[in-house]
Amino acid sequence: MYQVLMFDGGVYKINEFYELIEDIGGFVIQKTTIQVQILVTFAIPEEDRGIIEKKTRELGGKLIDVPLAGSEIVVVGPTLGRHHMPHPICDIAESLRRYGAITVVMGLARGRGKQTAQISAEEKAIIEEYDAAVFVVGNFRSCVEKYKYKLWEDIQIPVVATCGPEIEHLPACEAQVCGIGRKVERMRRPEEIQKLEEVSSKVIQIVLARRRDVDSDPLFVHPAEIKDRLDGLEAIQGSLRPAPVVLHVDGVRAKVPYDKYKDAIAALEIYGRRLGEIADITPSRMEGSVLIKIKSRSQVEEEDAAKAKGSK
Fold first, then answer.
1. What are the residues whose beta carbons fall under 8 Å from the beta carbon of 31, sequence distance 6 or more?
2. What is the C-alpha to C-alpha distance for residues 76 and 78, in angstroms, rounded to an integer?
3. Are strands 27-34 and 62-65 parallel, antiparallel or unpaired?
4. Cβ 277 vs Cβ 256: under 8 Å
5. Hey, what's the torsion of the CAs at 147, 83, 89, 125, to 10 degrees?
6. What does the alpha-carbon distance between residue 222 and residue 10 come to, in Å, rounded to a whole number?
7. Which residues of 202-232 are buried (b: 16+ CB within 10 A; e: fewer)?
8. Lowest mean pLDDT among 2-6, 201-205, 252-256
9. Whole-model pTM?
């Protein structure tokens, strides 16, 4: 299983660090240079962490655990208007970013009112493109228990539900955190920060569980390897969108128009295979983006065997 870490240190001899990551079978996910300092997010086999720690000490840097790096999380509220006050939603998203996740905040089109709150099929499809979802609902027990849980009950990705009242059990979610409801100010008090940490902890557990599931039937290539190839495309290099290539647990989101670039993306070569052969490439519900879901090794082997059998 791969472990995602961040190196925080100077640029001196940083190329030696990159070479070591490559030598042990790891991948560089992101580099951020600030004058003579650099932040490097990378994935390595977890059994080789000691080797990286030794090199980090040699370079005078430090290692930071970022367990959510390589994942994209959506934080959903009934609305982002004054009625629901988006402060907790933004605070949760920021807390998740500190652990390495790419986060997106989403408000539903018809979220006001306990009986009128709805989620459309289109909104569900958008949410299901992410690795996990955090739903932030209100302060009223009867509202949450009888109505608002229906917002996420059919969502096909793991859900963490948060609400204001202490409720023993909320249906249809993998985890819940009570004590986070509507607020008119940021979450700054120690007990509020502890709640944010609790949400992050639940999301980390969910993402790590998904990674273990993926590792039971490993992907044909690591998502970071696809990102490395995509970064060479002129369309990606010229993109002004933030994070034009986003890693998922089982794939990648590329923020370029599907119709215009699907053929170029499918033609990328990885380990002697076309990307279109080892991944499913589809248009994202988010306009102007492409979803790339990597096939498992066993799936690719089965398809190869079926083609070989059909050609005889």
1. 38, 39, 40, 41
2. 7
3. unpaired
4. no
5. 50
6. 27
7. bbbebbbebbeebeeeebbbbbbbbbbbbee
8. 2-6
9. 0.91
- The CA dihedral of 261, 263, 268, 272, to the nearest 10 degrees, is 170
Read off the pLDDT of residues 164-176 as tens digits, 9 standing for 90 and up.
Answer: 999 999 999 999 9
Q: Tally helices (H) and strands (E) across the chain.
A: 11, 15
The alpha helices in the chain, defined as continuous H runs, are: 14-23, 49-59, 87-97, 121-127, 141-146, 190-216, 223-230, 234-237, 258-266, 275-278, 297-311
Would you state the structure tokens that stand for residue 238, as one six-digit string?
Answer: 């010229």
Q: What is the DSSP string of 186-248?
A: ---SHHHHHHHHHHHHHHHHHHHHHHHHHHHS-BSS-HHHHHHHHTTSHHHHT--SSSSEEEE
